[in-house]
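chain and backbone:
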Amino acid sequence: MAFSSIEGLLAASRTCPVWEAVLADDCADRGVERRKSLEQMAALWAAMAPPVREYDPAARSHSGLTGGAGALLEGAGPGLCPPFLRQVMAAALKTGECNACMKRIVAAPTAGSSGVLPAVLLPLQARDGLEDSRMVEALYVAAGFGQVIATRASISGAEGGCQAEVGSASAMAAAALVHLMGGTGEQMAHACALALSNTLGLVCDPVAGLVEVPCVTRNVMGAMNALSCAELALSGVRSAIPCDEVIDAMRSVGEALPASLRETGGGGLAATPTGRRLAEEL
């Protein structure tokens, strides 16, 4: 894709919506017709729903570490969060558990962070009655911002820590939410920057080397972070640091992280006594 900066992406969208600029670039980059690109993105959107809609609370991962948590968030709950937020958290857990159970998910941008985008988009569509075409637009926005992050920094936990996975997914989701709520391209950039800023330094420390603990619940955090940062941007709160500079900072932080905190299972929760015991048992 042509976009190597958020500044460039916004410049390309001065005469069209951000999602249209990303769509046009995709068609040019891959040499496909507009219809084909739209069909492929619509298929990705359709694939995000089954892990949530067809969730099986009895399913467990092979390790036994994951399963059933998504169902615990359903219902009225103790009253700390309103129903919409509980739906967001449940959707993140369900998708993360689906991935851990080796079922079909959409890596957006990675399998380990696959719960963030559907967690914020599916409940919003249900709440506001949004057409699927609008959700496809949101995915193009997410893809455009994600491409810049991947180009300037990384979306790999092994390369940049979990900030590169859940952090990137959260930033992409924040921008997508701003689009759906009628925000501007500039507000999308601020939402993305704020979401990344909040996750700088997030380490990748999977227990037993599995994308389960703490990965699944980190998707919940990423989804809630996306919601709050989109709300901030839509309310006029701005990131003091430009989005491209935040992305560059994420790259620098990732490079500074020791190898033990970049998906090797040598540090963080993976290195705790319980984490080591679980690894040995598995």
